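Quick check before the chapter quiz. The format below is the same one you will see on the exam, so make sure you can read both the input and the output lines.
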Amino acid sequence: MATTMARTRRAIICRALLLSAVAAAATTKLDVLRVADLVDAVHGGARRRLASANDLYSATEQHVAGLDDAFWTFGTDGVRVFSNDGAAQLLSLPHDDICELREACFRGACSIHNDCNFYAAATDGTHVFATKDESGGKIAIFDAVRGLYLGSYPTCARPVQMDYAPHRAELWVHCFSPDDAIGDSGHLDVFSTSAWGLDRAQVALPNQTLGGHTHGWVELDAMTPDYAWASTREHPYLARINVHTLGVETYDLAPHDCAALNVIAVSWRNKHLYVKCHVCCSCGVDADTGAECNAARASDVTLRDGTTALGYCGIACDGSAADTVGLVEFDTVSKTVVATHYWDDFGSGDPVASADGAFVVVESSSNGRVKILAVGDNGVATSDARAADVATGFSPAAHRDTLFVQDGRSYDLVIFGSTVENHVAVAHLDDVRDDAAADVEAAVVTLSDATASTASSGRLASRSMAWARGTPYVMVCGAGADELYVVDLGAHGRPVDARLLRVVANVTNSFVIHVSTPTDDGGVASGKDGDDGDDAKDAYGIAALVLATVALVLVVALGTYVVCATTTGTTPQNQDSKTDIWKEKVGDDDKTTTPAV
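Here is the expected output.
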């Protein structure tokens, strides 16, 4: 009787333990899956640390449809996101939430404000990065899918220009006024867009000083995967930076009459760089500039012939009588200069390369026309004689902006903007392919009937433009009038079909980019959540944790069940005799015995 009661008590205890183990398995699985939901709510490893606790809690509810296939605009009052046709504002991130209070002084008058002063922006499809003028320099990071502001990382002072390198998942920033007083040690700053916590050293360009105005350019391309290329407007040295060690080599372009360098364009087709070369010039009505000297800026300079005169070096000489070098074409394979590009009836200007590497646009700084160079083979100089001439209707004083619209199917266009005229010019690249030396006709699309320019003004003036790939829509900035213009290119890619579709009013803006989130198959999502590599790793890790936890609990449950069976005199049924350690072979029949405990 006592034995039976003991067995009964042990059976009850064992069944309770078994039920507890199963419940633990279910609870553990659910809890881990809740953690998985939170991890999925905010993207990527170290970058998750930028999100606040509230973001972690509410991110799953904060996804706004369409953000990952939309135009993102950046202005003094913050960031706004618009649908591809501009008909709907999808998101507004006001400056109070994303930009810090700071003191700003202009001509002796100072004020405290938190207006955003954005310089440039880029995207990897799942995140948006924008440089801004705060505490020296900052990079603001946004979740492109959910519309979250994830925080800002410090960088070097005045981060005006940057280049995103998708083949390395890196962002390279060129700072125009690095300052060692605030901890800057270089002109370039490098960030991993998949591990923001990784702090790489800044890159100091040789023969350059920190501080002052080290305006310049940095460019990366998968054609030279081990190197980045950079310049400044202080010296004629083209820098090649090893992207792994950050070591720097320089190539002196002074023998080609360059006093300084600036914009760099890369054609992966011929592996050549096209570098804007600045010269030194004399100032005065009867001198190179043809205008009176600016007493605040003019100084004694050495001219190309070795003589000294009152004048300038750099951008102030663009379009002057001394500006006869233009672009330097540099072969990255042989590391030699193969040509310079200047036209007597045109001058020269800043280069812009097409995505397919077939063309380089030269935006003239001295007249209203544009040249388009047709790129050849590696080591072969691009022909000036075969350059196409596009009449844009722009004035000589206008700053240019160029946008290529190419998809390999319907669209093979190039669009030109101006900071003086309120129209864009649209040209077909087939006209250049068919006869590279021909004059190319451009269709004009009027943006505004205002007599004054609606573009931004000042030394960083621009008419920023962006194309929504997969659609006929282009958004054009009108920063001077707080307007955005949406141009419809039509369904067939003909310049004459382009028309103004919509004007979006009362939007402060400096520039615009388009964000298209890549899908798992390499395509572009439209209004769908996108994942990056870190999220995939998180998902696999969470799945493994769930499986391991459940397996452990089930093992405990099975052990409990077995112990219960031995204790209560019951056994598992239908066991194979070769593997059943609880059976003994007795005669011709399988008979079960319970070992003594």
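If your answer matched, good. The chain has five helices and 39 strands.
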